[in-house]
């Protein structure tokens, strides 16, 4: 509650400050030296008053975003960016319901953005100021595509000495690749992997055949010793050797490899997840929010962010600012992208909620 | 009536204890009772008015199973705490005050360590490359058993976290047992085992009940430990409530589950109160 009051006050201050500056500017012309001396202080106070609240994933994500997206934006516009973490879909929904805004801007994944758009908890892009400035297909379900990560197969090279699983069918092959496995506790991502393991071609995964996916999952259930829910946890499981192979986010796997752990990965059948910038519905700061988003997907800034946070940019122009060997560590890089599998969140098949419920039930029994 | 009024005006100081309670009462109202009321309201209004959420709880096998699992786990943890805590509390009650204080320090030490750190410590200890697995392998257990992500690992961690409550409940009761009663039993010819079974054990029973009730109720709401250490097949209610909100945005269903969990705790408390009196719960 108090936070809301504070933010409203800050918003009011922003308007007041801007008016003050323009009136003062006129006076400055007339009054000369006195006004010139007073200007810096006035501009500072006007700048400090304008604030945008961005929901971030924290940690290295936030560090990279601060350096490449937030700070340049603040320098350019004077709008201060304050961060709130972690990213929570539930909070996005709750704040629209309550009218108390903890953040104005957040990133959503493919499944979530369809849900969010259907639930009308994000602002429509149409009518916003940025539609013309973007590349083709940049806007999806009222979100602006920014960057991507992939879920790929990583394995312990010291345990799987036969080269390790090179596709999801191998991952499901308990005979040739024995050992404990882990996948993310996230049905919408896991079911397509199961279908690929069962031999479904990647362009025919959607709409999902859920029954077939669950039948396939049954085959490796005994080896799925743990379902990870957080990136950190997935890294720990593989690093400490709790599992021998894992479906893991590519950035997490690359970090382990860079640290010198005996980890192998394959980009083959890597499952791409796109992240979209969205604006929280009805937030009083939506105009600044759209301005920020437009600046955040500029090729050079996006490239900087992706290089540091180990993502793949979705603005194709960003690759102009990325060295080739780094592009090959990105899921959307020219060598990796043809091997990857995109998710089709629009034509998912069964109702997402029903699938998730069934998935939870399947795990629990 | 008049005398009551008189007493009220004659002794204004009598009001003061209630005034001292006021800040806490206000705090609890604002940050506990009001939100709790909102949760209760949500459970019967989201997505529509009625008892639909509660009906769904009873009709879906998953919920019943998770509730059953939660109660069984809490019961198991309470029993383990009792079995492990009783000898320790007994030792403390029999020791010199200095030794007792030292033991108490050791028991409560885990209170001062963060919850997550303790949980992660168990992951390190019980992991595939951990000392326990290495020791079992050394003893010739080949291949060594998987200890992590099983009922064993989550139960172990919860017992570790909750055992101080049990030991303190038992100790406070055992400390008050009059040694003269034990000596009397001995002087009447009872063997040590009979003294313990027929005199000491019944006298320490209130501590057992207190400790078990506390541990059971706290354990019902455990979230992090079973999620991080337990087997995926053995979910507890708090974890499922989290999933309901984060994955399904189903605030109504989650609220209904929270209400059922709260009601179960209150039922246990009521039974305890009827039988023993609530004021004795903390020893």
TrEMBL record, chain A:
Pfam families per record: SBP_bac_8
Swiss-Prot/TrEMBL keywords: Signal
Domain of life: Bacteria
Signal peptide as annotated in the record: none
Keyword check for Nucleotidyltransferase: no
CDD domains: PBP2_polyamine_RpCGA009 (cd13589)
Keyword Signal: yes
PANTHER family for the chain: ABC TRANSPORTER SUBSTRATE-BINDING PROTEIN, SPERMIDINE/PUTRESCINE-BINDING PERIPLASMIC PROTEIN
Name by which UniProt lists this protein: Spermidine/putrescine transport system substrate-binding protein
UniProt lineage: Bacteria, Pseudomonadati, Pseudomonadota, Alphaproteobacteria, Rhodospirillales
UniProtKB/TrEMBL annotation, chain B:
Keywords: Cell membrane, Membrane, Transmembrane, Transmembrane helix, Transport
CDD domains: TM_PBP2
Topology of this chain in the membrane: Multi-pass membrane protein
Origin superkingdom: Bacteria
Domain ABC transmembrane type-1: 67-272
Chain ranges passing through the membrane: 66-89, 101-126, 146-167, 207-231, 251-272
Localisation: Cell membrane
Family statement: Belongs to the binding-protein-dependent transport system permease family. CysTW subfamily.
Protein name: Spermidine/putrescine transport system permease protein
